[in-house]
Amino acid sequence: MVNTAPAPTKTAKRPTRPNGQWKVDGPAPLNHNEEFKAESDPLEVRDRIERIYAKEGFDSIPGDDLHGRFRWWGLYTQRKPGIDGGKTATLEPHELEDKYFMLRVRIDGGALSTEQLRTIAGISTEFGRGSADITDRQNIQLHWIEVEAVPEIWRRLEAVGLSTTEACGDVPRVILGSPVAGVAKDELIDPTPVIEEIQQRFIGDPALANLPRKFKTAITGHPSLDVVHEINDVSFVGVEHPERGIGYDVWVGGALSTTPRFAERLGAFVSAEEAPEVWHGVVRIFRDYGYRRLRNKARLKFLLADWGVEKFREVLESEYLGYRLTDGDAPPTPAELGLAERGDHVGVHEQHDGRFYVGAAPTVGRVSGENLARLADVAEAHGSGRVRLTPLQKLLVLDVAEDEVEPLIADLDELGLQARPSLFRRNTIACTGIEYCKLAIVETKATSAEAITQLEERLGDLKDLKPLTLHVNGCPNSCARIQTADIGLKGQLVMDDDGNQVPGFQVHLGGGLASVERDDAGLGRTVRGLKVTADGIGDYVERVVRRYDADHDGTETFAQWAHRADEEALR
């Protein structure tokens, strides 16, 4: 028999699927998110909210506006009460959501006047059932907002210079800024002019309102590195150049979530005058070259991982800036400088003008409209008209005369805002959790507050315990930065001792960002099978902290110990 089959040939290389990079693949939408953004500028939904939805109510809102474009104006539907975490991944959005919204007030640099604070407080009490949370991105989030109230809320915010513009969505989100910008004695450079120029020139620009996904910015001139610069898409960190003087070191491509990646230095120094244009160039690279086909690959970190820093810088300089950036060295870390405290600015600190700022810790960022109004009154009663929010869910009162410091601290304490908090009250943060968030699996705020109370009672005898961080997140997305905490807790359902499925957490140990205790950022360690129930957080943290206290070697930090300890010591 004659074999008539064709001779074997080399397997043809399968064509690479397009990633949706506009400058490579063209602008044709490759998924529904890209389709609705292409169909209508998401910023234009404001007109429909004001003309139609606020008058006709929640049921008049079509899906692409409700679940998509509303985010461009800081609006997310919140979770319907009573839906347990086991249903988070199985129900459709309309089954999870209530007819109320979370509203995020954008506060670039975390800077608020007492007038602005009082305005937010009034909106909270009148339209949000008194809800208010300070986030770890220097925003304030309100809940229980009805669409009918949104135009009036915008009117009140904008009357005092605030907005919700691009507080959410595939846009440049709020700009993190040093909470002590312009007041700290040891500040290298005040980032306020750069923050203000970026905000005024580019936020709300339709040309930047369709990015592949969210884009996060951080800018600081303080040596404590107080804006978590390693986990932002672009960061500018104050540094002194030997020839050009004081400016910024540029970092790109950081983010956490389910695929954590730390930002990398471009190796470039930029002046304060150059920084806004460099920021604009980085954002446009993301817009034009970022991956749009798959949402879970659409952050800048994935492009940087593929390109590398050298190519990224070359494209930035040749295609977007038109000039070569000055080479520069990294800023010194807080540990290298020998700073005494982490950069949360809690406590009493002298300003460059001889007055003082006082940093206080609410419990995991949870405040209320009533207390925000009282905070404005208290600040003014002690001579201050300015408050700052921090990237660690804390707040500062600025410009306090020396003889007003202790009376202010006493009044803050009555509001549950402690300027001399316990170690755990100071260093615990938590995301929104299942109370309001449609992505959450477990409750976080009340759970964290209860754990703090337990740990204050149980570990008070450890007088020499060094500060350590506890971050509690309601799902895998790491809004509370679980991978960069000494003890990070990722919400999930777990089995208790009786074999029942209950709310709980996977444990990450020994993560952190550059601080007084470490030169470099590092991710936490996970131990196979190490999970704790939600009502067992206090028990677990007490157990592992006591083991650290007994076992660590001299000056060894908790993170160092956690990474070298046997697994059994961590359980």
Automatic annotation (TrEMBL):
GO molecular function, one term: sulfite reductase (ferredoxin) activity
Cofactor: [4Fe-4S] cluster
Domain Nitrite/Sulfite reductase ferredoxin-like: residue ranges: 94-160, 349-414
Keyword rRNA processing attached: no
Annotated InterPro entries: NIR_SIR_4Fe-4S, NiRdtase/SiRdtase_haem-b_fer, Nit/Sulf_reduc_fer-like_dom_sf, NO2/SO3_Rdtase_4Fe4S_dom, NO2/SO3_Rdtase_4Fe4S_sf, NO2/SO3_Rdtase_FeS/sirohaem_BS
Transmembrane segments: none
Pfam families attached to this UniProt entry: NIR_SIR (PF01077), NIR_SIR_ferr (PF03460)
Origin: domain of life: Bacteria
Nitrite/sulphite reductase 4Fe-4S domain location: 169-321, 426-570
Reaction equations catalysed: hydrogen sulfide + 6 oxidized [2Fe-2S]-[ferredoxin] + 3 H2O = sulfite + 6 reduced [2Fe-2S]-[ferredoxin] + 7 H(+)
Class of enzymatic activity (EC top level): oxidoreductase
Region spans: Disordered: 1-34
EC number: 1.8.7.1
Coiled coil region boundaries: none
The keyword Iron-sulfur belongs to this UniProt entry's keyword annotation: yes
Family: Belongs to the nitrite and sulfite reductase 4Fe-4S domain family.
Designated name of the protein: assimilatory sulfite reductase (ferredoxin)
Species classification: Bacteria, Bacillati, Actinomycetota, Actinomycetes, Micrococcales
